[in-house]
TrEMBL record:
Keywords: Membrane, Transmembrane, Transmembrane helix. This is Prepilin-type N-cleavage/methylation domain protein. The chain crosses the membrane at residues 7-29. It comes from Sulfurihydrogenibium yellowstonense SS-5. It comes from the Bacteria.
Amino acid sequence: MRNKGYTIFELLVVIALSLIVGAAFYTFYNTVIKENISKSTIAKQEQDSFILANEVVKDLSTIGFGVDADRLIIKDGTACDLDGTNNRFLTYCSSQKQLAYLSLAGSEDQYAGCWGFIDRTGKLNTYIVNDNNTIPLSYSYLNKQCPPNAGKYIRLNTSKKLLENAFTYDPNNPDPSKRNSYAFYIGKNTYPNDPKIIPSDFKVIYSLDDKNLPRECAPGTYNLQKTIGTSSLPSPVISCVLDFQVKYVKTDNTVSTSITNLNELSAIKLCMIVQVGGRQSVPDNPHNYSQAGGCDQFNYSNNDWRYYRWAVIEQVIPLMNIR
């Protein structure tokens, strides 16, 4: 009759089986956890990309803000910089992938974007009154407060013609002679009287540059950078950008690379491809722009790009300041 209990061999077999099962369970658990963390990280990075892109969209929505009617001229919008004759306030250069435009909200002054209507008493009102409601201008559009003390402004009439390229508005001493006109804050900047002179303090340029890229950026990507005026240095806005395009949206909703009549222009379309996360171990088929969206299809010619995730951004931005 056999004694009750287990032999050493049986115990070793049980321990070995337990270790195998435990290792398998740990591997499975660890894989699931890592996959969930990876998905969460990618989702966060993708969300961050769209947040940064949304800041660019907000910025581009101010194109033409405060610009007088004589400078709201566009011939074809295809040059690589603004000039005093053909493309005075907006142009996109496809060869350099560079966007240039004018906006009084583009300067780095903390009150840039302040504007209002001067009433018959000379008071600057940052609100409009219509039959339905009262809408504060500083909250309904740019959400910019005007300075509490005296500051320098330009004046436009109701047809957006330039009345005065610099005057000082003092909230404590309003001037009735300035009545029935729009005022836009310019601070210490300069706004020329001559419509053929580009007010360089309010020129904004978005361009691509591959200098000082973060290490995690894929080869062939760029920093999307912003330059304000002619005296400031470019500052990166979004890193690891693979593509940057701007198209013109006409009033009939067609998308074009050029525009010949300002009255035909209603919006611009921003097209961007931005890297999400670092290099992956498994290749993927990257997404492209929608076929009928108007953006030029991007050529993923570099096979290395298949090892990265990409966020594709297509955004129509109404131009509310060109009428």
